[in-house]
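User: For my dataset I need records formatted as: sequence, then structure tokens, nothing else. Please produce one.
Assistant:
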Amino acid sequence: MPDEYGYPTAEEIEELKSYCGHLGDDKRMDLDVGKLIEHLKKIWWLPEYGVVKKGKGLILHTCGWSGNEETISVLEHSLFWVLFWKKSVRGGHYYFEIPGHPMKKKKNREG
């Protein structure tokens, strides 16, 4: 739960890094898109407007809130961003295309 002012806590930022494959000093190659999206909905200010999942697309609107911008900054330094970022539009609008989770392999069902 964000702090009393709506900013993500340090713990929530660390959890975000664990889901997005953070590429900073503490490189974390783990990527869990499902958990990432759920976590974004939990820590985003105005998630009902700012975190929009449509089919293969994910759209993030920061609504001008600096806490959301901090979250975007973490994502910009992640494997998630490298793999799925499509475009950014001035005013805090970020578009991603997630065709499927490329790091998960389907099990071969043949004997």
